[in-house]
Amino acid sequence: MSDSRTSEFIERIPVGPLALMPLQSIETLGERVNRYLAAWRAERESEHKHTIAFNGYQKDNYIVPTKISRFGTGEAKGEILETVRGVDIYFLVDVMNYSITYSIFGHVNHMSPDDHYADLKRLIAATTGKAKRINVIMPFMYESRQHKRSGRESLDCAMMLQELHSMGVENFITFDAHDPRVMNAIPRDSFDNVSCSYQFIKALLQNVPDLDIDKDHMMIISPDEGGMKRAIYYANVLGLDMGMFYKRRDYTQVVNGRNPIVAHEFLGSDVAGKDVIIIDDMISSGESLIDTAKALKERRAKRVYACCTFGLFTNGLNKFDEACAARTLDGVLTTDLIYQTPELLSRKWYIGVGMAKYVALLIDNMNHDMSISAILDPVERINERLQAYRKKRAMENEQISMELE
User: Fold this and answer.
1) Residues 94, 137 contacting (CB under 8 angstroms)
2) If one looks up domain 3-194+358-370 in CATH, what number appears?
3) Do domains 3-194+358-370 and 197-354+381-391 have the same CATH topology?
4) Which of 122, 217, 258, 391 could form a disulfide with 78 if both were Cys (CB 3.0 to 4.6 A apart)?
């Protein structure tokens, strides 16, 4: 963090004393975010830092302890174990963490997205209107795959946003929403849909040392028409061409709640001999992603990497193990915004993308009531990272040429 940024922050009075409230589902990420915030605020120097307006500004720990107690029936209550009067609270929740269990009538039950969302509401209710401001950071938006109505069906995601609004939530932050237009459900409220583009590019450049990032050697691919906007952004920022697959479905059948895919049809220029980056918001079962990778390899793509914000892996990792062993896929990148199994983290083909620093930066800006527009638009940082990578590659190639001579 530069000196100018530090000075700018300290001259803006915080909305209120900062309080982090990560639920059990996201404790690991919450602790990392807390460490970043504590380190940054300890380093800042200003004559205002010790005034009453900055009371509680510098602390070793911003996490407020909470407790969810459950009865034998599975019912629960939420408790906040410290005062939150006048504070600026940031709730963090991972509705996809299925590893947490509880007992219901003697049976072990894994927590579902519904359970995590209910726990979030319990803790918001436990603030009893005493907090200065309530903010929710929900990386994977609850029920975001049910974002539009096609018939007589529920509109769960929109109802969730309206419910949180009615409970006093002022700012809602999510990452790579399946369809950000769901924000129309709360048109007057603060809704930020954050992209992870810089973090993905950074992780890819750190872990793959021999990429040639130009139109002759690399291409961006969207696995379906829904991800076009996301892929176009990456292609424009990196100066690459893009292609798209569209899914032909059998609308006479419904399997596991959806129409089965008959074929993946490709639209775009030739991928032969090029490194290909598949960009998507999530990996669910992974079947569609692997089919896309196979189709690209059949078109003689050189290497195929998948960058997906959320790695759900609902059908396990075996198919990915097989695909990577067969060199159908050369690497998979997902973020740590949702639960990652120890098995996933142990895979050689997996590249984790850390998001704690980015989340901490968002919280730091918002607590000072500053614009986050510059953080949400990372083009400048991406260009700096690309220039450094290309310079390093050029020096390595020059050194190899000298050694050969």
Assistant:
1) no
2) 3.40.50.2020
3) yes
4) 122
Mapping DSSP to helix (H, G, I), strand (E, B) and coil, where does residue 193 land?
strand
Q: Contact, 44 vs 83, CB < 8 A?
A: no
> Computed from CA positions of residues 163, 164, 168, 173, in that sequence, does the dihedral angle turn out positive or negative?
negative
Output the pTM of the full model.
0.90
Distance CA 347, CA 164 (A): 38
Pairing of strands 133-137, 218-222: unpaired
d(CA 109, CA 105): 10
User: Is residue 267's pLDDT more than 90?
Assistant: no
The token pair that represents 230 in the structure block: 């996301």
- Please give the full DSSP string across 280-310, using - where no structure is assigned: EEEESSSHHHHHHHHHHHHTT-SEEEEEEEE
Domain range annotation of the chain: 3-194+358-370, 197-354+381-391
Q: Does domain 197-354+381-391 have CATH number 3.30.470.20?
A: no
**Integer Cα distance of 28 and 12 in angstroms:** 29
CA distances for 230 relative to 217, 280, 360, angstroms:
20, 8, 24
Residue (of 140, 12, 21) closest to 82 by Cα position: 21
pLDDT tens digits along 123-163:
999 998 899 999 999 999 999 988 888 888 899 999 999 99
Q: How far apart are CA 231 and CA 138, in angstroms?
A: 23
Return the structure tokens found at 133: 């401001």
Measured in degrees and rounded to the nearest 5, phi and psi for residue 289 equal -65, -45
